[in-house]
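User: I'll paste a sequence; please echo it back and then give the predicted structure.

Assistant: Echoing your sequence first, then the prediction.
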Amino acid sequence: MWEYQNSVVTTVSPRSIWNLYLNVAEWTKWDKSISDAKLDGSFENGTTGYLTPIGQEPLYFSLKEVKENKYFSNVTYIKQAGIQINFYHLLETEENKTKVTHGVIISGQNAEILGKQIGPAITMGIPEAMSNLVSLAEKKSL
């Protein structure tokens, strides 16, 4: 298994961040590493969709463990590589502030090798995306 996690703290409510998560088609406004994203239904457990990293083919995912205003993950299975990539998003309230955590877990039979090879490239834009997400939520909250 290979893991990565990053957190930021903001004064906006978890609901403000959650509303940005719900609009999958606009993930490109805060995550500049993707050129397109789409969800094939409601934002709930089991719904599928895709996101397209810039310069790459679409990656298909399923939403898992959706807990409104608190947590969700989107999981991509890459069967030919023997891995799954779990992107998780956690919102926690701490003394009138919201802690936003994004993480990636690469698991599966080839996770140790491929995680070290592809993990850093997958995660390098996460701090900037989180900063953009929080800034966008703060602007919408004004």
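The chain is about 25% helix and 45% strand. The mean pLDDT is 94.
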